[in-house]
Amino acid sequence: MKKTGLALGGGAILGVAHVGVLRALTELNIPVSMVSGTSIGAFIAALFAFGKSWQEIREIAFDLDWLDISGLALSQYGLLSNKKFGDIVTELLGHKNIEDASIPLSMIATDIGTGKKVVFTQGDVALAVMASSCIPGIFRPVDYKGALLVDGMLIENVPVSPLVESGAESVICVDLLARHGFNKPNNIIGVLLNAFYSSITNTTAIQIESADLSIFPDLSGFNLIDFDQVPDLLEAGYRAALPALKLWAEGKQ
What we know:
Shape: globular
Strand content: 15-25%
Distance between the termini: 11 Å
Number of helices: 8
Number of strands: 11
Helix content: 25-40%
């Protein structure tokens, strides 16, 4: 059996679509040998790597107070702190290191001091999720060994490269932004999210060229911050993934 890697991209609330992809993988009995994630993709990837089923992750997504993951922490570097996001990871998984995961896990962050990619494959899983999902300008950077880390979307929003470097023989990736339609923002958070995500879509297309299968859920009708979209986002991910994965799996036989 070939080693299959799964790369889950960032996209704020759109990340719920990843749960639909996990549902399709489970129903088709497609084994995943390793998983990587950026931003909200890192959160979903971490839950999956530590053995949470798609049903369990779905319930987490439904129960999560998406506004509550960012407690106010005004500073010179950002408007909010996403420490609560890290606390949620610890609450769900316990105090775990990345290397304790059931399947190999990697998460991407950006060193905002150097502009270089940081790949987490070991160390505290909650800290790595916080760093990977730390949207610059909105969240205060995560201080890690003297470096200030922010969202990995700036460097590699759909993290295919860590899987290839870890020996994946085939890679499935999920790009949440390829078919996302940007809407007029209503507040500063919306302005910053639109600015960051619209600037990386072209780069992402180049970075995922080496993937064996790219899944592009149709998220054109969704925005980046409306929490009421959660059930529909999950369904959109499932609808995009099931036929694509079925065709891909048949081609592998």
